[in-house]
Design brief:
It is built from 11 helices and no strands. By secondary structure, it is mainly alpha-helical.
Length: about 250
Amino acid sequence: MTTSRYIPHYSNPTHKANLHQPPFGIILYYIFTFVVMVILLNVLIALYNSAYEDITSNAIDEYMALFSQKTMQFVRAPDENVFIAPFNLIEMFCLILPFEWWMDEKRYDHLNDMVMAVIYSPLLIVTALLEQQEAWVVKENRRRGEDDEDTVMEWEQVLSLCDFEADGWDKKVQASRPNVEFDTAVLEVRELRKEVAELKDMMKMLVEGGGAGNGAKWGGDTLGESGLAKLDASKLGIQAGESSENGGRDE
């Protein structure tokens, strides 16, 4: 039994070049595969993990913010007959399209009130029953001289551990509290008056300092070169000749 073996033909120059060339192509392919499949894939997984942790950590805050936004949107809606989703589809296809364009306004409002009463009555009845049950519990606790609620919330458990004044939270709340006593324009005018008063003091100190150090001429030259001499001295609270008098006293 004979076995055949492949013997390269070294007489062919192309085959001889393929045998002796460096394997740069396969090395670059292995490096590319390693970078893409190992390093970049791990980086992608880490980014997804970080994004997921950020979302889950702020899930309650984002939900409450979205809930508040939707609540304020329905509270401040220009429409008097507010149908919350998905009941707005009933308003669109069962009230607006078939009745609003031809029905009298008074009758249309009455029809909306009837439809809203039918839609919201089950939810309102359940809410009233739950509130009545809680009211009975509070009334019974007050009759026994106990607290209104037996359930202790999570924020009530850590309330004794928080010192809002020491942490500076009280000051932050007071600083961020909106001023509803005065109009915004009045507050801006007051701030503008303070800035004008500070500008007057700065100008007065500048003129007095120039007259005391280098005489009256320095202050006049400085104001004249800077263009401030054109300002009305009576509006800035500076009396005429005040700088020269101060310069004469110092001399």
